[in-house]
Design a protein that fits this description.
- This protein is mostly helical and 356 residues long.
- It has one domain.
- 57% of the residues lie in helices and 2% in strands.
- It is globular.
- The two termini are 34 Å apart.
- It comes from Megalops atlanticus.
- Belongs to the fatty acid desaturase type 1 family.
């Protein structure tokens, strides 16, 4: 009996997915903490909380009323006005201050992409204690909620993507998925589903819980004071410029780069891996969010540490993680096989897949 290439790829796809599910189910039952070499107790629970749950059904009837959080509206408006002013005074800043701002942007972004996202939300690789401490500090510089809350909400986003239980449901439009979701009360289903997630691994990570406990002072120090103080102390920049450019402007740019993953990358672009879901491949988002714009791939294979099949291409976060592996600070990076990718492309892609 002979099979076509398409049939063979389809069969391989199902086998690989079955093997992955069996592996994660086995991990899910392993709830006993294990002591690592660095002395931290880390839960081995790897419940697949970031895999889409197609059994969820939205409640029938009228949607709950939208409740605006006016404090957030005022704060976000003030932040963006301050960032706009920071743009206007860029000509008055020294080249060192601008370089420092770019550096702070990259550190902040890595705290989200390599830290809260790929490490703590998806457990796509393992990080040593020094690397986890660095990523937690970088995450405080990004100021996008503490790691525990960020990872919890992101797992809910993957598990219930584009439904009422998705914190930034892109079906509700660009503005809502970009920033609007932070200006209103969460939908009751988001809160309900978030409470039911298995978060043992986050609770067992001492770095995560330490950052959560001291989050506010760590944000004041890393997001605002350090970016402002360094240019003033080391090369005589004014505190005014230090506050508005490496402080507010850099912070606002990191926020919007992250939000574009929730909004633009769910609306514009191609879907070479799964045309049945909203997330897209968006090169602009990939560039601005240092590698997070390969979003159709990421939602298809959320456990892949690279969030892309193309390695380092437009993916600074993957470069960083690989460098940490080279230094011995990270290991066990999860990767999707080339065969599984191609099988999925053949089965559910939109026909736009390219090899590079």
């Amino acid at each position: 009996m002979s099979f076509s290439i398409q049939e063979q790829l389809h069969h391989l796809d199902h086998i690989a997915e079955f093997q992955w599910k069996k592996m994660t189910e086995a991990e899910e039952h392993s709830t006993k903490p294990a002591r690592q070499a660095n002395g931290d107790v880390v839960a081995e629970t790897s419940a697949v909380e970031d895999i889409f749950d197609d059994t969820y059904k939205e409640k029938e009837g009228p949607k709950p009323p939208i409740k605006i959080v006016w404090k957030n509206v005022i704060l976000m408006s003030g932040l963006h006005i301050g960032a706009l002013y920071g743009l206007l005074i860029i000509p008055s800043a020294s080249i060192l201050t601008l370089m420092w701002s770019v550096f702070c942007f990259l550190v902040s972004a890595l705290g989200v992409t390599a830290g809260a996202h790929r490490l703590w939300s998806h457990r796509s690789y393992k990080a040593s204690l020094p690397l986890r401490i660095f990523l937690a500090i970088a995450n405080s510089m990004a100021f996008q909620n503490d790691i525990f809350e960020w990872a919890r909400d992101h797992r809910v986003h993957h598990k219930y993507s584009e439904t009422d239980a998705d914190p930034h449901n892109a079906v509700r439009g660009f503005f809502f998925s970009h920033i609007g979701w932070l200006l209103v009360r969460k939908h009751p289903d988001v809160i309900e589903k978030g409470r039911k997630l298995e978060l043992t691994d986050l609770k067992a990570d001492k770095v995560v819980m330490f950052q959560r406990r001291y989050y506010k002072p760590s944000v004041l120090l890393m997001c605002f004071f350090i970016p402002m103080w360094v240019p003033w102390y080391f090369w005589g920049e004014s505190l005014w410029v230090g506050y508005f450019i490496p402080g507010l402007l850099r912070y606002t740019l990191v926020l919007n780069a992250t939000w574009l993953v929730n909004s633009a990358a769910h609306m514009w672009g191609n879907r070479p891996y799964d045309q049945n879901i909203n997330p897209r491949e968006n090169k602009f988002v990939t560039f601005s969010a240092i590698g997070e714009g390969f979003h159709n791939y990421h939602h298809t294979f959320p456990y892949d540490y690279a969030t892309s099949e193309f390695g380092w291409k437009l993916n600074l976060t993957t470069c960083f993680i690989d460098f940490m592996c080279f230094l011995g600070l990270a290991k066990d990076c999860k990767r999707v096989s080339r065969e599984l990718v191609l099988a999925r492309v053949q089965r559910t892609g939109d026909g736009s897949h390219r090899t590079g």
